[in-house]
Structures are given as structure tokens and as C-alpha cells.
Amino acid sequence: MVSPLDDKLGIEITDYDPDRLVATMPVEGNQQPFGLLHGGATCALVETIGSWAAMLGAGPDRQVVGIELNASYLRAATSGTVTAVCTPVRRGRSLSTFQIDITDDRGRQTATARLTCMTLSKR
After folding, report:
1. Which pTM value belongs to this model?
2. What is the CATH number of domain 4-121?
3. What average pLDDT does range 43-70 have in this prediction?
4. Is the dihedral of CA 117, 20, 11, 83 positive or negative?
5. 28 tagged catalytic
6. 3-state DSSP percent of the chain in helix, strand and coil, to 5
7. What's CA 38's distance to the chain center, in Å?
8. CA 83/CA 49 separation, integer angstroms
9. Are 5 and 44 in contact (CB under 8 A)?
10. Residue boundaries of the structural domains of the chain
């Protein structure tokens, strides 16, 4: 299930299991006016991959929502594709926290983030 925003940003989940998810996103089309990858696009990538990780852990009869996002930008990405790797920090019954590290095509870390999601019963 791809969201309309994920589609617009070109976000693709490329690998997943309960303990590690990987997603990619092109820099082209997701830049701010100075040609750098937009921080908002980076945050959308983090929310997407972290929410998928939370959904996999929650199961089909539950839904998840992000409740806290913390992101640090470490290096500018100006071309190519960025890759996000998401790993769980803690999974609980109602709250799950994930670490997401983002690298450029050369393997250099461009950002790191932490996302906490709340697990809810489907309505």
C-alpha cells in the first residue's frame, strides 16, 4: 500500500523484515530552492519507513500513527538516491520507537532520525 505522498516523492520500500526495513527516494524532484534534498522530504521518508516498521509489528488488526519525530541533518544530498535503513529501538504494546539512518549513493550518512509510533485498535 503506497500513499499518494510516497508516490509523489518516489519512495520505495526495497527490503523488509521485522527487524530491518530499507527504502529509497530520489533526490531529483525533492530538492529545496538551493538544490539540496529538502528536509521535509527526508522527514516524509522517515515517517514512511518507520510507520511501515510499526505496522509490521502491530499486525493487521491494528493501526499506527506517528507521535514524535526527531531528525538531524548531517550532510547535504544533491543528486542520486538516498537510502533509509530503519531498525527498532523498542517495541511495546502501545508505543514503538525506531532509528532511521539515511545515506547517499556513496554511503555517506546524510541524516539520522528517531520516530515513535503509537499502536491503536482499528476503528
Report:
1. 0.95
2. 3.10.129.10
3. 95
4. positive
5. no
6. 20, 50, 30
7. 14
8. 11
9. yes
10. 4-121
